[in-house]
Amino acid sequence: MKDNIFLIEMGKKIKAARKAKNISYPKFSKLTGVDMSNLWFIENGRRNVHILTLKSIADVLEIEIKEFI
């Protein structure tokens, strides 16, 4: 799978999980410690994610990291 396609698919999964938990961007940003612009880029597959950032996102969403892959 090409890198950009992988990032897009991962971003979609993160966005769907966030929306399913009804978490707004500002709240998500506060809970994860990641600024809103970075979250937008991640959810839209436009930014590669540091593993610790992905762990923080997964922890807030109560999902294992492997669910995003």
Low-confidence stretches: none
Number of domains: 1
Helix content: 55-70%
The third-level CATH topology is: 434 Repressor (Amino-terminal Domain)
What percent strand? under 5%
Radius of gyration: 11 Å
**What is the multimeric organization of the chains shown?**
single chain
Average per-residue pLDDT, rounded, comes to: 94
Give the N-terminus to C-terminus distance in angstroms. Answer: 11 Å
- Specify the CATH homologous superfamily: lambda repressor-like DNA-binding domains
Q: Helix segment count?
A: 4
Q: Identify the overall geometry.
A: globular
How does this model look, in words?
The protein has 69 residues and is mainly α. It has a single domain, classed as 434 Repressor (Amino-terminal Domain), CATH 1.10.260. It is 65% helix and 0% strand. It has helices spanning 3-20, 25-32, 36-43, 51-61. The radius of gyration is 11 Å and the shape is globular. The protein starts with a helix and ends in an 8-residue tail after the last helix.
Topology overview:
Layout: H1 3-20, H2 25-32, H3 36-43, H4 51-61
Question: Which features does this protein show?
Answer:
69 residues, mainly alpha, 434 Repressor (Amino-terminal Domain), 0% strand
In short:
The protein is mainly alpha-helical and about 70 residues long.
